[in-house]
């Protein structure tokens, strides 16, 4: 099992919007969800994607997408626009849930059972880190993690880096999935 937590500074917490970009950059949430959960023609059943939305009108909202139960979904933006709009309006979608939960409470809960890794360009290079089982990766949106949120996350985990270049959050997730997939393949070889 691997999990990704995205901190969204501006993501709207209601359904009163017309497009993902203008809804506090929910387009980043969509891109990260797709990068986390989808393979070509398949859903990663062993991945959970979380985002904590901190935008108006009533933050925080924790949105969880569980690959094990996710269905009736495609990777296109319109599908995710509909899903996000519906769940933020209080409706349901298989594998997607929302609750009133802060970033700090989510991290504390996850740290009880998993190793936390905070993605930051200045962290320890991932090639030097032995990623344990059931990792949880914490990322910021286009603005990055607020300093207070990063400091809180580092109480439970360590700062790691994919390199000195600042990649898009969804790209970081794709790179992490690739690295972990390669690691799993090498462990399964005779």
Explain what the structure shows:
- Helices cover about 30% and strands about 25% of the residues.
- The relative contact order is 0.19.
- It has a single domain (about 1-190), classed as SPOUT methyltransferase, trefoil knot domain (Alpha/beta knot), CATH 3.40.1280.10.
- The protein has about 190 residues and is of the alpha/beta class.
- Helix 1 (about 25-35) packs parallel to helix 5 (about 170-190).
- Strand 4 and strand 5 (about 60-65) form a beta hairpin.
- The protein starts with a strand and ends with a helix.
- A 7-stranded mixed sheet has the order 6-5-4-1-8-7-9. The chain has a two-stranded antiparallel sheet with strand order 2-3.
- It is globular.
- The protein has 5 helices and 9 strands, in the order E-H-E-E-E-E-H-E-H-E-E-H-E-H.
- It has helices at about 25-35, 75-90, 105-110, 145-155, 170-190; strands spanning about 1-10, 40, 40-45, 45-55, 60-65, 95-100, 115-125, 135-140, 155-160.
